[in-house]
Structures are given as C-alpha cells and as structure tokens.
Amino acid sequence: MGLLLLLAFGLRLYRLGEPSLWGDEGLSLYRARASWEELLRGRIVLRGLQPIETIDNHPPLYFAVLKAWVGLAGDSEFALRFPSVFASILLIPLAWATGRRLREPAAAWAGAALTAASPLYLWYAQEARMYTLLALESGLLLFLLLPSRHGTSLGLRRQIAALVTLLAMILTHYTAFLLVPALGLWALGQPRRDLPRLLAGFGIMVVLMLPFTYLAAHQWVEGKYFVPSFSDFYAILFDVFRASILGFEIPDYGTLNVLLLLIWIVIMVIGLINLVKIWRLGIYILFLIVLPIAEIYLMAYIRPIYQTVRHLFFVIPFVYFVCSKGFFAISKLLKGFSYAIYMSILGGMFLNNWHYLANSYPSRQSLREALVWINQNASPEDVLVLQDLALTPLADYYYQGTAKLFLIGQQGEGQEALIHRLEGWPRPIERIWLVTGLSSEDLARPEQALYHWLGRRGRYLSQEVFPSRNVWIRVLVYDFSSPGCAPSPRTSPTGVGFGAYFRLRGFEVEPSSPFLRARFFWEKGSASSLNLWLGIQLVDEAGTVWVREVQPIWPSYPPDRWPEGEPVCQQVRLRLPPGLPPGRYRLRVEAFDLDRRIPADGGPVWESPFFALEGYTERFSLSPIARSAGGLQLLSAQPEVGPPYFPGLGIPLWLRWQAEASPPVARMMALFWQQGGERRLLLRGQLGPSSFPADRWRAGQVVAQRIWVPLPPDLRGYGQIRLALYDEAGRELPWDAFWPFYRRGYPVLSVSLSSWPVRRKPIPLAREGGACFVETVCLDRYEIQPEGVAPGGIVEVRLAWHVRRRPERPGVVFVHLTQRPDQAPWATGDGPPQGGQRPIVTWEPGEYVEDIHTLRIPEDLPAGRYAIFVGWYSEEGRWMAVDPSGARYRMDAVPLGEIEVRP
Hints:
Blueprint: H1 2-13, H2 23-33, H3 36-41, E1 43-46, E2 52-55, H4 61-73, H5 77-100, H6 105-117, H7 119-125, H8 131-145, H9 156-172, H10 179-188, H11 195-208, H12 210-222, H13 233-246, H14 255-276, H15 281-299, H16 316-334, H17 336-358, H18 367-377, E3 383-386, H19 392-398, E4 404-407, H20 415-423, E5 431-436, H21 440-443, H22 449-457, E6 459-466, E7 473-479, E8 492-498, E9 502-512, E10 515-524, E11 532-540, E12 545-552, E13 568-575, E14 583-593, E15 596-598, E16 606-607, E17 611-613, E18 626-628, E19 632-639, E20 650-659, E21 668-675, E22 678-686, E23 702-710, E24 718-726, E25 732-733, E26 746-752, E27 767-768, E28 772-773, E29 777-785, E30 788-789, E31 794-803, E32 812-818, E33 827-828, E34 848-856, E35 864-874, E36 877-878, E37 881-882, E38 894-901
Parallel strand pairs: 3-4, 3-5, 30-38
Antiparallel strand pairs: 1-2, 5-7, 6-7, 8-9, 9-10, 10-13, 11-12, 11-14, 14-15, 14-16, 14-17, 18-19, 19-20, 20-23, 21-22, 21-24, 24-25, 24-26, 27-29, 28-29, 28-37, 29-31, 31-34, 32-33, 32-35, 35-36, 35-38
C-alpha cells in the first residue's frame, strides 16, 4: 500500500504548480481569498468599468476547506491544488477498505490500484476544484452503506455517519442531490425494524438542506447553473463509463480505446452480477449509478444540467467498486488469464496518464503566460484590456504590471463605454494591449466595437499567441504613438540606408527605468515590402548583448504608404533587465525582409554611437539562492542555453547578485568543475561586469553579470559547476549554508556532458584528396559546386576531413580563390570547420568530419579560370601541408582544382 500511495502521490505532484490557473480555478482562488461572509454567500464581484456583483453556483464546503488551507500554505498554484491531491490520495486506502468490507482481498487491491491509476482522478487531483473531495465523500458514503457482515443492517452510528456524509456531499456540489432518490430506494430495502430510524434521519437531513435545495432549484430553473446542450441517456451513461477508464482528455488510440472500453463494460456487468448474490447489493449499487444519470436526463427536458462527467463525479467511486468486484470474479473463473485482463486495463490507464502529463496541459488556458509577458513589456503609458469579465480573479492574481487594466465582456458588453473613456484619457496612450480568446472571425463581428475602434485609431503592431485547447489566448498590440512625430534636439542625425527599402535619418534614446525608449526616424526608399522587421540589441562596450527585441516596421503602415521626403517616426521600447549595470551602451540594428537580412550601409548591421545609461540596479522581489560571507547574495544563476552540453564548448551563464554591504568584501570569483573528489579550475576573474566591478557596488543594488564558462574537451560525464568568491587578499570566502561541501564552492549548475556524435564511415564526395596537415587531419575527399559561375555568384566547397590524431590546438580553415598560392586571393571562405559548432580539439582519431565553405565571387572579377586552394592556420601561422609522398605543398596551400568565371 505504501508503494502504491507513493506512485500515485508522485504522479499527482508531477508539475503540479507549472500550468496556469484557468477560469474555474480562478473562482476557487477568489472565494478562498474572500471574507467568510462572502464565501458563505458565494458573492463574486467582476471588475468591469462598473463592478458587477454575481453569485457563484457552487456550495461553500470545499471553498471553506480551501480558505483554511490557504491561510496555512499560501495561494501559489501548487498550494491551491494540493487539497485536491490530498483528497485523491485518501481515495486509495478508502477503496481498499471498501473492498475488504466484503472480505475479498483481491477485490480490495484491485479497487485500490484502479483508484491510484485512474486518469480521471489524476486530472482533477491537479485542479483547484471540488471534484476529488466530492469523490472522497462519495467513496466514504459507499463504505458506510456496505454491510459489515453478509445480511446485517446498519447500526445507528453508521447511519448517522452516512447521512452526515451525504450532507457534506450536497454542501460540496449540488448534483449530490441526485443521490437522494437512489438512497431512498436503498432505505426501503433495509430490514423493517430499521425503517423508522432511517426515515427520521432522512427527515432531519431534508430540513437542514431546505435552503440549499431552494438555491439549487432556483439556479437550475433560472438557467444560472449550467447552460449546456441536451444529452441523451445512453450518451451520458457511455460518457461516465468511458471517462472512468480513459479519463477526461482522451487521446485517439483508435481500436485500442474501443477494446479497452468493451473490456471495461464486460467487467462491470460481471461485477454487478456477483454483487447481486450479496444481499441484493448489486441492485442497490446499480441504482446508485443509473438513477442519477436517469434524473439528469429527465431534468434536461426542463433545462439541461449535464455538461461533462464532472457533474456526475460522485458516481465514479461506485463504478470502480463494481469493477474491482468484477476483477475478483474473473480471477476465480479464468485464474491466470485474469491477470492479463487486469494488466491491460491498468496499462491503458497509465498510457492515458502519460499522454496527459506529457502534453503540457492543453485543456487549460495559458492566461498566466500572457499576463506575465505583458508585465515584462508594458509601460505605465500603456493600457491593457482583458476581454473576459469572468477572468477577474486571474487578472488580479497574475497581473502585476504598471499599465492600467480594464475588463470587458466577450460579447461586446462595456466596449462602447470603454471607447468613450479612452478617447478622453488624460494623458497620451502609447500602446493598447488587447487580451482575448476570440478568433479573428469573432473579433470582426459588429458588436466588437473596441476591435473596430482600435483598427481605426491605432496601428496594429504585433500579436502573441499562447496556445491551449479550450481557446488560444491572443494578445494584440496596437501602437498609438504618432508616426509623424517631429525630431527633438536630442535626435542624432544619421544617413544610413538599409538596401533600397528605407533610410535611417536620425535616432534618439530616452532612458526611463525600467524601459529604454528609442525613436527611429525613417525615410522612404525606392523598394517596398509588407514584411519588414527590425532586430534591435542593447550592447555594452565589451560586446555583451543585454536586450534583444524583434519588431515589425509598422505592419499597418508599410513604407509604400509613407509620404515622400518626410520622416516617419517609430518608437521601440526595450525593457531593461534587472541588474543592468551603469555604463556606456549602444544599439545594434539589423533589418529583415521576412527571413532575408537587408544589409546596412557599410556592413550587415548598423550600430549607434555609445550613450550612457544609469543601469537598472534597483531592488526587486527575488529570494536569494545563496548568501556569501563576503557581503553578497546570489539571487539567480541561469544558463543562457539549455542542454545538451558538450565538452570543448562553453556555457554562457547569467549571475545576478545583490550587495549587502557598500562595497562588498568579495572582489574576485572562480568557477570550478566538481566531479566526485576532483576539483578543476574553469575560470577565474573579477566579480561583476568590467564596466561596473564589485568595488563600486552599493548596499541593496542588484547587478547582473554574464560569464562564459569554458568546458575543457577532456571533461566527461556528470558534474557540477561550483562558484567560489575571494576577497582582495585572495582568501576564499565561505558560503552561509548548512551543507559542509558548499564551503568549497556553491553549486550553481549541474551539467551532464553529452558525447559528440562521431562518424566512422568515409563521406562519399566526388573527388579524392590525400593531403595531410601536421599529421593531425587529412583531406579525404572534396567537391566544388558549381564549377562554372558568373560574377556575384556563390561557389560551395565541401570538404571531408579524416582525423588521424586529436588536434591539440584550435585552427581555422582557409579557402582562397586565386591563380597562384602566393597571390592575394580574389575571394575567401575562411572560417573554423563546421562554422565553429564543434571545436576541433574534440575530434576523435579515426573520425570523418564534413565541412562546408562558401566563396562569393566579386562582381568586378574578370572572366577566366581561377584556382581554389585550401589549408589550415592558427595563431602561430599556417599548418604544414604534405602530399601522400611526403612532399610539402607550396605556401602550405593545397590546390583543389579550377572554376570558370563566365562573363
């Protein structure tokens, strides 16, 4: 039982806090945060332009439990969902105890295993809703109703406990009312001497439940409970059976699903037949399953109430109990074959669990990701509009930004009033962010007045999509800054052109922590395109890129609509990362037409002159992961790239510090490779960026530092990268940590080094090589394509290297187009092999490596025949090249052949 509980607990905790809360979970959060009076009343206030008060249609018991738990554990996603996990885990021993009540251990273990593996229970265990609590109460009710010995009646205590459990079920979910007729039939089947006591208990319960009965009936008749479509009786019954084995989110496994469902139904029928032999128990269990389904079906003729299987969740424990009895009966009839049936059912359940856990929770909206993204990019001059009033709790929970937030209805409610308010906004609006789950067709409907107003008044800038199954969350961004804004005295004139598309006449920057606003003044060129993009980077003096931003160039105002000879202004906002040190920075700008780079005058990109920034070193809410005795807190250590990691390459690592003293004692830092007892130095240098070392830090400042951690080529296996700090005298400073091995450096990153893929077979290129370089690598084969080209064309040189022994130093391959090796080349294709993606110091002896270089033929190259030479060089000079006979090539350049440059 312990192993079974651990397995189920691990499944339910896996990524429990990762997915965003969705709409229904937001209601749970709202009621858990409300006062006790509002919780019991079910009062919810939606944040429209005018607050809208409404009533939640669920009873208060689950929310009272959740409120008490939140007071102890907080309201994180993990904490909010944990009560559902706990209730789901308690169902397992309860299912086992229910089977034991029939004195059938095999049925008890079958019920416990089915409950632990249930995809339906796993789904709702990871949701902050009341359904696993309802299932737990339903399972407890079944346990209390079963006779302790064959043919005996219920005692007074168990009868009272059963009625209290039913009362708790109704206070958890109103659909538990559907059990009352089935329990009435069950009571009529009890011994006659117990009937007065049972009727008295039912009478007391009915009196206690009159207020909730009225509320439930009123919401059902008025249509405030659910508004689903009509469902036939067989469809509801089939849905309950299917969900109990395949879960709520059912992957398409074709015939496997049908086969599992047929086996499941057969097992249920066998279980019911065998339960009939035990004091007519099978008939009563059948009533508990079928009568609530029949009631929902009949009620649908007045107003539909059934939407998904969660509205009959209390029936699922009865289904698992019947199936556990069916497994027991089959095991007595078929013996060994019954285990195959049992394992196929459990295997199907675990297959569906794997599908659920591996698919990133597609059935829940990703509102958290959308709002967090807006938190990072919106400025105080922006306006955020969320188009769903029901998402009020999630907006209050996730949105921490500075832009003003408005909520409106999905069907156009409040949009005209919001437009009127925005038109009279007291300050200029820079951007409006529209968060919606509607499709483009929905947004184009006449009642979507805000969407049409945004298209007329603003300029569509970009769109971000956050996928989920129910509805994709879309964030539409509209720019309200004027494209005709005039240059100011701060504008720096430029005259750089980007191809024939446009010219940059000037730019200016306006630092405003935590944003940097850059204005670009464009002038129309002779060419036009509807798909122009800017790539903008903020770079410091050392070349470190601190911010990257990709933005379209006025997608709703393309250059072909720009006025002739007049500058068009575009504003770009760069969010400065926390920890950006003060210093001198520049903007690096590149332009694209779809995926093709548009070169700037004088190079592939344009770089602005340097300008000073005060940085962004203010405090921010991030708990330290480690504290040093040197007056420093390490707030985060994040690699810029994820695994796999390979020996011979480096890892770009971002460290974020917070100073506790002015200045901190720590001055230097070192990174070590720790593998078992082996400690190996990887890097040693100053603490902090070169422009802002630690001796300039003040208490409370947050400073980010990017370092490149080299991984030597002979490293292998799994290890840790550990960080050590030193004072001015070079003494190592200890970390304030409980574990003694942290005294020898704090583990900032665990690394599992992957092996490089090695090719042992020759690469089939057209021509044979044979030249070798310093007895390290040899040119095995090569190709030149094409062998005839016009000026301005490109020639591709494909090389296949054969490694004789591991190179001890890095090298660069040169590929020259010339007529003799001692002449200056007309075109070059120099570069590290494989574009530097794999250092040659990691090449293995006997390995074959494919390497491609390109030669761009100059436009003014005269027609004629030209030779291509290849070789290697490093800092010491060219590598010696010899032919198969041992003779050295002239200038250590190996001739590959000639190409013809045609006029």
